[in-house]
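Sanity check

After download, print the first record. It should look like this:
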Amino acid sequence: MTKKLGNTVIHKRTLDLKDAIENIKYTAFPGETEAGTLSPGMPVALIGEPGIGKTASLLALAEEMGYEGVEVIIGSQLTPEMISGIPSVGETKFLDADGSEVMIPTVTYLNEHFQVEILRKKKVILLLDEYSNSPAGVQAAMLRLLNERVFPDGSPVPPETAIVLATNSARSSVNPALIAPPTQNRIAWLPVSQNLKDWTEGMLEKWGQPMMKNERNIRKMVAKYLEGNPGAFQERNRDERQNNFDSKMDENSKDAALYAWRSPRSWDNLIMALARLPHDDAEFFRKHAKIQAESIIGVLGLNDFNDALESYIGTHIQGALETMSVQEMFDNPEEVARRAGDNDANLTSAVGARVQKYYMDVLEAYNANKTPETKGKMIEATAQVASLLFALADSGSPAYSPVFRPALFPVCEKISKTLMNFPGGVFINPKASPRVPLTVLEKHNKRLHDAIKATAQFEVDDKGKPKPLVEIPVLTVFTKVEAIAYPEQYLQRDK
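Expected structure tokens:
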């Protein structure tokens, strides 16, 4: 006697799109039989919200599998004839009973482009996109293709060809048609969602595609925003917004506000749009960036994203790092770090070069005319430059900026070597070298002052007794910056 089970709650887990794509390799693609022939895979359907990257993921899968790409047919745009073939009247030659040739009228079917390409390439993914939006007649025409892997003209679908359906959920579909039970039972159904972490990893590198001039920084900005606001990645219940529409909105505006919403696709579209905007005028950028954001990720999307957008404008356009004077950098290293953001090495190296040139110019002026004035300026510049370098490169500093570390160590090296080779050797001779009062150093960077005071060797008087440390040779200031902020590189170079 069979024991009857009570009511069981059915719960099916949504798969990360990355995991679903990996599963497709072993479901939709062919396997090898014991005889060495190919056994075709079975069709797989991806069910998920629009804009999560189903089609893009399949394109990447085709490349990974060494396939020639993806043949896409969009169900909502098809007629049954475009699947079954357009009938054409022709003639077929037969032999009658006495062996005479007889021409009999027959119907043949003109092959659609997708069929020709599949038969030619074989190793291709056939993607039936927007399947749930396909009219019932189109779904019926697809039955033989899905169920028997046979084209309408009788040609078999090559066993190498993988068949994948992509469909939105019924809630997100336009006039969805019921998928017939015979089709339901011959397809593997995978409910999918996009994982923010997986998507971000690919998005930051544009999935290996070349980027426009400002695109990388914009991708970093969007990634940082979404990591802090994961709920903004994929907008749910988007149609509910119309309940809050202002009654004064015209119909065109209502449609625009309804159609623009957040998804992985819309975020990537926004990135591309922002990258195309000129970056040399803050007000122009602000105006058009907000128009773009509102039109692509929606009014609510812009409201939430606005602070991140303003921060980007402040960092990369309005008051960009390039516009700061060297003196402004000395006065506010925290602002230097903020404006640098996640910038690339070219920008941080350019900043380092500006600071280095400033100091070299001061040294040349001192060397050309050693006066109390030029000496005083050189000592002040030493404290300022060393303090800025230390503030940005020292991991314990409030202004610490990891993006600057690779760029600033060569600056320290260059300055130190210049001082060691200074005409007359005055900078390498502790007794002859100009010295920086610790009070001057403390004024600009107390952390550096304390670090130097803690690690510097005390000088002794004529009787061999330690003297209070009140000033330090110019060269020593920079070697201490190197040794404290870059201990590994400093030791390696010292060897």
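If your output differs, re-run the checksum step. Summary of this record's structure: The radius of gyration is 35 Å.
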